[in-house]
Structure formats: C-alpha cells, structure tokens
Specification:
This protein has one domain. About 55% of the residues lie in helices and about 0% in strands. The protein is built from 8 helices and no strands. The model has no long low-confidence stretch (mean pLDDT about 90).
Length: about 170
Amino acid sequence: MTAWSYTIMGSTEADIYYFRIFSFIQSKLSKEDRKHSRIPDSIINVCVETNYDDLVKLTFDQKSRLAYQVFGVFLMKHGAKMTDKVKELILNNSRWEDEEDQLLEPKDKSERLYYLSDFREKIENYVEGVKTTVPFESPDDVVQKLRKKGIITTNYPFIVAPERAPIDHLIKE
C-alpha cells in the first residue's frame, strides 16, 4: 500500500478502511437519507449509534491496528458515539511501541510519533457530540508543501506525492 504522509489518514490503506466504514453507514441509510448530496452528521451519528456493535465488528475483522485508528478518525470527525471500551481498543492499537522500529529515517520517526501522539491525545480527551479534527494530508497537500520548500520545482499539475516507507499495521494472532 502507498503511504504519502505519516498522518493517520496518510495512506491508501487508511483510505480503504475509511471507505469501508462510510460504505457500511451508507448501506444502512434509508433511501430518503441517501438523497442528500452530503449526509448530515446528525444522520450519520444516528446510524453509528444504531449499528455500533456491527461497526466495531467491521473494524475488528480488518485485523489491522490502522483500521482502529481510522475508526477513531471517523467517529471524531462526525462527533459520533465512542464508548470507553472502544476508546481503549483504539488506544491499544495506536501505541508508538508497535511502530517505532518500522521507520528507519529519524525525520519519518519524528513525524509519525508527532501525529500518533496527537491522535492518541484526541482519543483520550474525546467527548461525544464534539467534532474533533485529526490532521490529514492528501497527496496533493504533500506536493504543495514540497513545492513551497523548493523540493518540487515544476508546476506540472499531475505530480504524484513521493512514496514514504509504509508501516505494517497487521495484528498478528
């Protein structure tokens, strides 16, 4: 899987997990609710609450620490329900100790530690009903940042963000 950033959502793997959660939510909505061009958080939150155990099972079935992290991002983004037990699962699956030896470059380690620590703090302090934003960098954001630093000097519109070392988030049984 491609990684372009060490934010929680900085990889194609994270995008896939987010898409699975959102697709699950959409599948549970009524035809009327699906007519919205953008589904209101209030509708998403009712759906999350109604299908909470199934969402936790969906996350568990991914057998990935990143799936738990993405689930946390999704819940916080919408101000949705997050039980203490799910907070604990997310925190247990976002420990620095599980990742620190995977990145060799000091700059990469530092960046991931920063974003992971920020994420964990937000999970620990999360209050249901309060939307909480987790830092996110799209591939285009990375390209724009590198242009500002002078690392990418062309203005050609279709520049792909440089790949970063991926992190293995697989939960080994």
